[in-house]
Write a structure and sequence with these properties.
Layout (H helix, E strand, L loop, with lengths): L26 H18 L8 E5 L18 H20 L2 H18 L1 H15 L5 H25 L4 H4 L3 E4 L2 H8 L4 E5 L7 H9 L5 E5 L5 H13 L2 E5 L5 H8 L3 E5 L9 E5 L2 E5 L2 H9 L2 E11 L2 E6 L12 H18 L41 E6 L4 H6 L1 H8 L5 E8 L14 E5 L4 H9 L6 E4 L4 H9 L4 E4 L11 E2 L12 H11 L18 E5 L12 H12 L6 E3 L6 H11 L3 E3 L6 H8 L2 E7 L2 H8 L3 E5 L5 H4 L7 E3 L18 H4 L3 H15 L6
Parallel strand pairs: 1-4, 1-6, 2-10, 3-6, 3-9, 4-5, 11-12, 11-14, 12-13, 14-15, 15-16, 17-18, 17-20, 18-19, 20-21, 21-22
Antiparallel strand pairs: 7-8, 9-10
Helix pairs in contact: 3-5, 4-5, 11-12, 14-17, 15-16, 18-19, 18-24
């Protein structure tokens, strides 16, 4: 009869702390790898009647570059010196009594907590994410300190335990519910054992051969760089009956083993990079390896979880759960992966000091922190709404101009749709902040003072900590605001003298091409963050107001303003077709033109130029059927509101700053000097004079006729 056994290896000196495969560059090193692989293959084939349980660590595969590795082809003498130091350390640790070693580890962990600011902050951030709504800041700080002490004690004790026989280890370890796994094996069902970095997870490697020592045990192993230390670790593992297999051989041996009735242990609580499934862990989306669920589904294996708890000084307990996957294979891979996260979370809550908090479990990916482009994407279990998730806080620094802000709305919508836990906060100059109330995807608005940088930073610091800042303006000030607020990820174009303030630069296409609309620049930022911009909204609306807006000014300068007398004449001709009420909009600088037009139209007009706040302008534009205008911020605002626009262009380029959406009409005569982008025309204003009253009248009437029969001739 085929027998089965279990081994779980998570050697912190090898697999757990090495995140990328070793690369050997010398031909002789490659030859040694081939010889070792063939030798391991021969050992594998010695006994074909015995099933095995292999540990496979859910490796952190990622698209972005891994941390640089040291070349393992070090001089032999240096390798041997390091090996001697390693063996000396092992001998010293082995000579210390276990309880004293545990106390020494606690002291060393406390020292590490004092001096290692980087890992202390990382652990504090992780604990705050997990328990922010359950523990006070003081409790979080104390938990982090106890974690460092517990981690130091367990790491030192794990070194001593590795050299102890199982009989002595069991004097300090209790084992609960191992029968749950034994029942599955006896029924001929393979097992995928779900593990986490909890307590001394290496106890599995030491004790499983004791429980099932009558069969072979194996582990997928990552070679160490130092060949002497590597050989020693292999010898030590071999003394317990453990066989090691090179991870570079892939997972096919693991699948074959499961299909033969064996089992596999998978460390499942690490950040899985770009290839993971984003599913809640302590209520916040985390990249999670689907490997345990994939193996279980592919081989019809049972899923069982196990954890190690520290129950006293140099005392531990191993606990195995019952099978938690549906026996009839009804659960999907994403459902099982989400369930695994929930089980590990419950294990951690039993003894939070025991978990490996100095691992960046909720790492923000670079560059795609928005999840729309990921292969596996995000999965929120049934019964959990996006509002129940702990938010991923995104600060978007809005443009300083009304028109640019409106043109960035499609990008904001794409960013919000990029992940279900996104909470979007807009920081905008106080004079244009009200327009963001029109965008339902915006969760909060922070009005900023234009004049005082530090007051803006103080406002941002009063908010809950942001995970990411996305900067639409290219200004140095916008970058300084996010940098001084200490937002960890700052995204934007390199801009003006601010590259050193950003840590995610959005590239600008180098190939020359036709001018692109400003909205495309904003959408490119969203796309570089991982958003799906293929269906970006271009706002359209079926609103049919009874009034017509007219905006004769342009804040940029007189070169963008069509002649006031022509505005008045066109309005009179349109009004002759049917009763019309013209609503004149603009700033105080447009008062002279407004008075001239209002005098010509008489009772047909209401002059609101220089009399409206932005909120009032929005409200009154809502009542208009269309807007006749120059190239202005009001033009973009009307387009955002779904109001059709007839826009007159001269010195500027509609391909760059034209209104977003469909159904608008742009009138422009391309003369030899346009677009000049000047504030004032230095010659004869020929580009604007070329636009006739008849053209404008016909353009407005064509839109009105499509909307209503009142203007049919």
């Amino acid at each position: 009869m085929t027998t089965a056994s279990l081994f779980i290896s998570a050697n912190w000196r090898s697999s757990s702390w090495e995140f990328a495969p070793t690369i050997r560059n010398r031909p002789c090193a490659n030859l040694r790898e081939i010889i070792r692989a063939k030798s391991a293959s021969a050992e594998w084939e010695e006994d074909g009647n015995t099933a095995h349980i292999i540990l496979v660590e859910a490796d952190r595969r990622q698209i972005y570059a891994a941390a640089p590795r040291c070349d393992t082809a070090c001089p032999a003498m240096l390798d041997f010196v390091v090996y001697l130091l390693y063996r000396t350390g092992l001998a010293i640790i082995a000579a210390i009594p276990m309880r004293l070693l545990f106390a020494v580890g606690q002291f060393l962990g406390f020292c590490a907590w004092l001096v290692s600011g980087k890992y202390r902050r990382l652990a504090k951030r992780n604990v705050a994410i997990a328990f922010a709504n359950e523990k006070t800041p003081g409790e979080i700080r104390r938990l982090v300190r106890r974690h460092f002490q517990r981690l130091g004690a367990n790491l030192l004790c794990s070194v001593k335990l590795a050299a102890m026989p199982p009989e002595k280890i069991l004097r300090r370890v209790k084992v609960d519910n191992i029968d749950a796994m034994d029942r599955e094996f006896r029924a001929g069902v393979p097992v995928v054992l779900v593990l986490s970095h909890l307590g001394i997870w290496e106890l599995f490697a030491q004790l499983m051969p004791k429980f099932v020592g009558y069969v072979r045990n194996a582990s997928v192993y990552q070679k160490l760089g130092n060949r002497f230390i590597d050989a020693h670790v292999r010898r030590t593992r071999g003394q317990t009956g453990l066989e090691l297999f090179d991870r570079q051989q892939g997972f096919q041996p693991v699948i074959d083993l499961l299909r033969s009735g064996g089992g596999v242990g998978v460390l499942s609580d690490q950040h899985a990079g770009d290839h993971g499934l984003w599913t809640p862990f302590f209520g916040r989306l985390a990249s999670t390896s689907p490997l345990p669920a994939l193996l279980a589904k592919r081989t019809r294996a049972a899923l069982i979880a196990a954890g190690v708890y520290t129950i006293g000084p140099a005392r531990w307990r191993l606990v195995f759960t019952e099978r938690f996957d549906p026996p009839k294979a009804e659960g999907s891979v994403v459902e099982l992966t989400a369930e695994i996260n929930q089980i590990i979370e419950r294990q951690i809550r039993v003894a939070p000091e025991d978990w490996f908090w100095v691992h960046n479990r909720w790492k923000t990916p670079q560059p795609n922190f928005l999840l729309a482009q990921y292969k596996r994407g995000a999965y929120v279990p049934p019964g959990v709404s996006p509002q129940d998730l702990k938010p991923f806080r995104i600060l978007i620094r809005s443009s300083n101009w009304l028109g640019d802000s409106v043109m960035s709305v499609p990008a904001v919508r794409a960013i919000k749709a990029g992940r279900p836990d996104a909470r979007v906060t807009i920081a905008a100059p106080e004079n244009i902040a009200p327009i963001w109330k029109l965008v339902p995807e915006v969760d909060a608005i922070i009005p900023l003072s234009r004049s005082r940088l530090l007051s803006a930073v103080q406002l941002l610091r009063c908010e809950p900590s942001f995970d990411v800042a996305i900067l639409f303006p290219n200004s140095l000030r916008a970058a300084l605001e996010s940098w001084l607020t200490a937002i960890p990820r700052r995204v934007g174009y390199h801009g003006h003298w601010r590259r050193w303030l950003l840590n995610q630069i959005v590239p600008v296409p180098r190939k020359p091409g036709p001018p692109e609309h400003h909205s495309v620049r904003f959408l490119r930022i969203a796309r570089e963050c991982g958003a799906d911009t293929s269906d970006s909204d271009r706002m359209a609306s079926d609103r049919q107001p009874t009034k017509i807006g007219l905006c004769p000014g342009a804040e940029y300068g007189p070169a963008k303003r069509w002649l006031p007398e022509r505005f008045a004449e066109a309005a009179e001709r349109i009004g002759a077709q049917s009763p019309v009420q013209w609503m004149l909009f603009g700033t105080a600088r447009d008062a002279s033109a407004g008075e001239q037009i209002a005098a010509a139209l008489g009772n047909q007009s209401v002059n609101r130029i220089g009399q409206t706040t932005l909120d009032q302008l929005i409200e009154e534009l809502h009542e208009c059927r269309l807007l006749l205008t120059n190239d202005t911020g009001t033009m973009h605002l009307a387009a955002l509101l779904g109001i059709r626009v007839v826009a007159i262009f001269g010195s500027t380029e509609p391909r760059l700053t034209g209104p977003l959406g469909n159904g608008h009409i742009i009138l422009r005569h391309h003369v030899e000097c346009s677009p000049c982008f000047l504030r004032e025309c230095p010659i004869d204003f020929r580009c604007m004079k070329a636009v006739s009253v008849e053209e404008v009248t016909n353009a407005v009437l064509s839109i009105l006729r499509n909307q209503s029969s009142e203007f049919q001739i």
